[in-house]
Predict the 3D structure of the following.
Amino acid sequence: MGDKFECRVIPAKASNTHSYVTRKSFGVVARILPWNSPPGTLIWKLAPCLAAGNTVVLKPSEHSSCSTLDQMDLLLDVDLPLGVLNIETGCGATTGALFIEYREVEMASFNGGIAPGRAAAGVAARQMKPYVMELDGEPPQFELADADLDLVVHRLLWASFRLAGNPTPPDRAFC
């Protein structure tokens, strides 16, 4: 998909003006990876960065860095230019902060626990760097006290019925 990025002019409503979209890479992106499923997370985080024209510095969890180092050996065999993909190992509390603070890093991403994510966000904020985080692997869902859970289940079932090609909604009593 890397060759599908495009810049385009957006029609403007006001006369004598125009709007346009440009795509620009960040440059050096720091990616801090979690201890769980490091190979999958590595590719999931790495592919979009490289496709957008960034260079990447990875910091695997100190609890699972061996699998990331092994995967790096495989990635180096694909003839990426020297310096496009880098790795730095170390303990999160010390290495992670230095990793984000480094002046060449233009953007940071963190996957992991809430406390270290909060600390990393503080470092990124002080540096005025864009920062993306996913904490504890939980989806951002919550239930309000007045939520109609029966209605939610009914609508989810109706959506799955439609996806299965059934034009008739399920009876609400079925839920």
